[in-house]
Amino acid sequence: MRKYNVGMSADVPRRGEDDGPRATAVTFRSVVEERPGQRLRELFDLWWPAYRRWFLRDGEQERSSYAGCLRAVRTHVPELVPAYEGLVELVGGGDLEARFLSLWDPPPFLAACSLAAWTRDGNPSLLRSYDYAPALCETTLLTTTISTRRTMAMSDCLWGALDGVNEDGLAVALAFGGRRAVGRGFAVTLLLRYMLEQCADVSQALEAVAAVPVNLSYNIALVDASGQAALVRVAPDRAPVIEHGGVCAGNRQGATEWPEHATLTGTEAREAVLADALADPAMTLERLEQVFLSEPVQRDPAEHTWGTVYTARYDTRERSVRLLWPDDVWTVHMATAENGQRLRDTRVLMPPLLQREREIPHTPQVIFA
Description:
Blueprint: E1 2-3, E2 21-32, H1 38-55, H2 66-76, H3 81-90, H4 95-102, E3 114-118, E4 125-131, E5 140-144, E6 151-156, E7 160-166, E8 171-176, H5 188-198, H6 202-209, E9 218-223, E10 229-234, E11 241-244, E12 248-249, H7 259-265, H8 267-279, H9 285-292, E13 308-315, E14 320-325, E15 328-333, E16 340-349
Parallel strand pairs: 1-2, 2-5
Antiparallel strand pairs: 2-16, 3-4, 3-12, 4-13, 5-6, 6-7, 7-8, 8-9, 9-10, 10-11, 13-14, 14-15
Helix pairs in contact: 2-4, 3-4, 5-6
């Protein structure tokens, strides 16, 4: 059995090896620090070789200079400058590391994922499935104060956030928007980090969206402790589109614009099931959780290249998360979070290892190559 994501993609089979389901052990971590320190530095050292390969995959000349990255952070997210500079110093202060950590103009990366905002019964919650290749995931729940607020979030690129909740009860999560448009901007995970650090509720988060340009199209779900909820569709080539209330999303921003990706990820079926669930007046939060843990929303990693790595249910009032799998649950409360880990034995379908392109490719599988 492969210990699959310890160093992330370091253990991905090389080009020419046969693809297909492989037995793997995926490590999920809970990492807790009052402020970023030794534990985060150790994680960076573990992940940096894989991230460095990804960051330079198109050649160093394709990445922005340190001066350009710093200028982008100062211009668009000035509140995060002290945190950014602190993280750069924490990991050694190298030029390449600083450019990577800015999350400005990174190589395109995308996932599948499903989102739903629950606003009934006085228990506002955010549910999401994260569908990706486990070898390329940090699978780390990081609880710390990076800038101004205590946050608990699934990390990406060390301080970016895939989903999470902050001390005020604002929960956020992302799903790829299913479009091939690429622009100059930040990785969307930096936008989520900015929201968690700077915003107390959905209204403030919606104001923050316009300040942070993103390089790809994404759907972002927001829920806060007062019961406000919204879905924001962001893109590098058009203004954000906002929907309010009990909303859901897969990997489209309206009509299907990338048929190959929609087919590969089954997004239309997932969206339809979630929309029907939220429209059902008899639906409960517990039943909605089971919808997320069942096909077609739950995608078996042994059968899909974009399989479900984990499902998360954020309780905005308790400031807690339930990390969910069909056969297990791991509940973590921000106030009592502890360092620990869970080892998940699973079978993972390796994606076809095809030739990469600098643009988002016509065939979605090559994002993994």
